[in-house]
Amino acid sequence: MKPIYHKNTRRTLLASAISLAFAGLTAPAFADADVQGRITDNRSNLLSGAEVSIPELKLRRTTAADGRFYFSQLPAGTYTLLVNYLGAMPETRVLVVADTEQRLGDIKLLSASEEIEHIEVVGQSGAVSKALNRQRNAAGIITVASTDEMGQFPDSNVSEALQRLAGLSVERDQGEGRFVRVRGLAPDYNAVTYNGTQLAAPEAGRRAVALDVIPSDLLESVEVNKTLTPDMPAGSLGGTVEIKSLSAFDRSNDFYSFTAEAGYNEQQSKTSPKVSGVYSKILDFAGETDSFGIAIAASFAERKFGSDNIETGGSWDFDEGLEEFELRDYVISRERIGLALNLDYRPGNNNEYYLRSLYSRFSDTETRQGMIVELAEPQISGSSGGAELIRSLKQREETQSISALVVGTQQTAGNWQWLLEAGTSRADEDTPFNIGAADFEQEFTDGVGFSGSKILRLTAPADAFLANSYQLKEVEMGDTYAKETERNIKFDLSHEIIQRHGSLLLKGGGKFSQREKRAEEDVWLFEDFEDLGISALSLSDYAGGIVDYPLSNLGPAINSGSIYQLINSLNRVGFVDEVESQINDYQVDEDISAAYFMAQWERSNWQLISGVRYEHEKREATGSRYDAIEEVFSANQVDNSEGYWLPAVVGRYNLSQQSIVRAAFSTGLVRPNFEQLSPAFILEQDDDELEAAFGNPDLKALTTNNFDLGIEHYADKLGVLSAMLFYKQIDDFIYEADLAGRGEYANFAKAETFVNGGKADLYGLELNAIHKVAGFGNWLDNLLLSANLTLTDSSADIEWFDDGVLLSREVALPSQSDKTANLSLGYQTDRISLRLAANYKSKYLAEVGDVTNAAYDVYSDDHLQLDFSSKWTFSRGMQLYFNVINLNDEPYYAYTGLKSYNFQYEQYGRTVVLGVQITNW
């Protein structure tokens, strides 16, 4: 067991929680009377995130997605019921509590604007209002994107929708947002849950969930928790992305929505279709009126696009020049299918049963035509010399799927509430028999070189672009499969104690989860084709058309069908690469048992949460060792067991109805990813020197102490100004290192693995501003301005041995940008909605190229992307929209050390979308 904070801190926190608990248990009992109701606008639209309070009792509730609030066992008396919602006039009612339950029905709010007779719940203002109300009334620091807000931007998946929020940015794949970073921390440091169940990750070596797999159409909202409370599972340092599904009870009436669109990308002259639909209905069931809800959502999208790439992969000799580079042309087709079915049964006001399900499949078909230039001697721009040119083809269809199922019940009896829930998630990634590389080569003694620095232009003799000049060298085929499953069951019990001077909520529970990650890979290497009696060895025998590559000349394309035909005519058995096919197979099993206790105290303008969580993990990793000297495989299994105490204190103080101060101390952990934990081990000998490469199943989890302090000010009508300071102290930072020269690897020339380092620090400032323009009496009142800026800095030490001497240097945390910013300008009337959005992130460390030399560190350059969206409401509930993605045609660029040393350049072009949406608002 490894406590990750000082013992005195733990004792103080536990004493605080216990004192709060006993203070509540000694409180006097009052009469038993419940009060409940629902908050809507004057059109009966449900309002989530509304604050409902009883000032005399210092009690406060926040309405859920269904607009409901509930007070249990209030003492008899006459009180004031106060309802506050951004964008609405405050509503006050006299509440007389006796000994019988009161059902207040719907409380309808009116707009705070004199010009608008109803609260805006749709469009840009309505989406922002929903998100800000939930953010304002949350106990901790959260950021929310509702499904309506996601629809205001041209974002096709969850990852791209989240990039608009304060403190969040995305890592892109082929120009599409894929992984989410929170407050500058890499995706593997953040958790993703679906209605409380941890989502499995489809990729073999990672825990990070690729959110481009999940269409945004299937969700009710996405909530990012930036502070951890004891009732939340560990597994994140930056934040937890909580995906919340839609429910029929989130609408006051039956609901449907249908969307159809067509997209066009500059790189490919093909149409990309998309259709999606949502339907929900509330039914009578088992003699109960309006007790059963069903919500169904489905989405299908196919996107056809491409990209043009030039990369060196860091092959620079800084004294002499470039050693190798590659030109790549991608043709890509991505297909997304998403399904969700959610059922709710509410037989009484205090009982609820639910089922939440999600299935999403992402198919990525990619053809990559490449030209690899291996220079005989390092060259500088403008020079020429000998080289080997390799025309290379990669073609594969990769399918990722994520599914989740959650069933549970929540029961309320007086001031007691309990929840029992079971969940499971499964993800897999399947890349069946595919062309890893089909290589044709030819040699040049002179005349090959390049010009430029960021964009390298190939110069070569005419034969370099003729098919008959290239001869088939080898074909590598692959077949990979990865699967992850997660199963869990949890129980929560809470008890609220109401006093005249405030309330105390005691909450405790436990959770048990099992996670299994399995990876399999098969590799075949076909070569020496002449010895196999194959005479068709020229590229002209496998050519098909000319590659459309605007950055240079690639000549004829390699036809993938011809390559498959060749390989299928051979017997695969004799071409298996036994080492690669076995060494990358592994399985990791994790069992996590957790329990927590916390107390939440509210009085007047104060709210304080204090508690502790304990998690114990058992892990078993199974893989293979390969001794290349003896050419022998052996099994490798490593078992580990470790426990962690995770305390937290989260507080907020209302300076006024509009201004809130927040502060928090929390602890978190992130377990090493599966690539790092893999028990694969390869031992080789090169020129009588021992070399090894291996994973490290003994790695400890990264742990962190988090500190947050900030202030928020909300405008009465609609808007917010906020500033949040944060600091994270990370222990056991993981990085890749060479252990040669130390311990059991003292006699090795190379021993590459992953190790735990010392401490790393991350600190920053998060600024957010949203303003709905009002008071001008003209077109300016239709403007909505939104801006956020996150400033971060980090440092971590990495170590290595040089001739037996331990050396170190300081680096930034990978994937951490110093500046992340969003700016959007919106304009909306009853008919027209326009929005221009800018998303920016500064350069960041992508990878440590050479532990011993900072000059080889790889950086992703600054990235600024503009997106435009427009909507025209031509009839009630019917909209025509037109979007432009990557309006400024921003490329991706990464460099080695300095910007003049290309690591990778890639351009994607613009994408335009035209669509129609029908909704029964």
3D architecture notes:
There is one protein chain. With 921 residues, the chain is mainly beta. It folds into two domains: 31-139, Immunoglobulins (Immunoglobulin-like); 245-919, Maltoporin, Chain A (Beta Barrel), CATH 2.40.170.20. Helix content is 7%, strand content 61%. The protein contains seven helices and 49 strands. The strands form six sheets. The chain has a 22-stranded antiparallel barrel. A five-stranded mixed sheet has the order 8-13-14-11-12. Strand 21 (384-413) and strand 22 (416-451) form a beta hairpin. The longest helix has 19 residues, at 7-25. The model is unreliable at 1-30 (pLDDT under 50).
**Number of beta-strand segments:** 49
Low-confidence stretches: 1-30
Count, helices = 7
CATH superfamily of the largest domain: TonB-dependent receptor, beta-barrel domain
CATH class of the largest domain: Mainly Beta
Would you tell me the structural class of the helices and strands? mainly beta
Q: What's the average pLDDT?
A: 88
Q: What amount of the residues lies in strands?
A: over 45%
| Helix proportion | under 10%
Rg from Cα: 30 Å
Distance between the termini: 55 Å
Main sheet: strands, sense, barrel: 22 strands, antiparallel, barrel
And the CATH topology of the largest domain?
Maltoporin, Chain A
Question: What is the molecular shape?
Answer: globular
Annotated CATH architecture of the largest domain: Beta Barrel
Membrane topology: Multi-pass membrane protein
Keywords: Cell outer membrane, Membrane, Receptor, Signal, TonB box, Transmembrane, Transmembrane beta strand, Transport
Subcellular location: Cell outer membrane
InterPro entries: Beta-barrel_TonB (IPR000531), Plug_dom (IPR012910), TonB-dep_rcpt-like (IPR039426), TonB_rcpt_bac (IPR010104)
